[in-house]
Each structure stands twice: as structure tokens, then as C-alpha cells.
Amino acid sequence: MVDAADIDKAKAHLLAFFAAMAAWEKFAEANFSEESTDEISEKVKALYRQYATEKHHDQDRYSWSGMDGGTYGKHKIVDVEIVSKSRAYIHTNENIFQDRFLMIRQEDGMWRIDSRQRKREKWEKQAL
Question: Which domain holds residue 34?
């Protein structure tokens, strides 16, 4: 069963990811050069290992937002949809966009981000 404390942990994990990604984007923007691409890549992979499910652990990211707050700076949590005892969608709004993040509770009890989708005509996959 998923209770309010579980949902709070999942939300906190997602918000921590947003903050960590904003810090990484700021670092990447300030330090981008041909010599720094490996360091930038390793830093984002470390974020995915910390916040996302295993399928994302070797994921790289080749672009970032230069906006204040980064990619997720304007995302606000607006709803939580419990799917099962170990899965929940956390819905966010960012201006006109609606996203949802599938959170999966791991065997150790920690919540991890498994996927992101954006609502258009239907829910479409988006990169983290």
C-alpha cells in the first residue's frame, strides 16, 4: 500500500532530481568545451544513477536548458496518480505543458524515476 508518507518521499525525490539537474545544466553551460565533454557526461550519468531506475544509469544528455532553473525549473507538482503499491505517476505542469513522471519504488524502499511523458494528443515519451 502507498500512504501519504510514501508519496511525500517520491515527490521529494523528484524535486531533488529537478534541483540536481538544474545545477548540472548550470555547470554544463558554464564549462562547455571540447575538453570538458567527458566530465559533463560523467556528472549527468551520476545524476541518473542517483535518481533514476537502472535503465537510465548509462544515459547521457547532449543538451541542456540555459533558462533560469534549467529544464525543470518551472515544473510544479499538481497531482499524484497511484498505479500500484510500487508505482505512481507524479504529474507536473510547466506553463502550458503537462508532464508525468513514473516513479517506481525499489526493493530498498527508495523511489526512482523510471520515465517521463508529455501530454499532447496522448501521452508521449520524453527524455529525462
Answer: 4-126
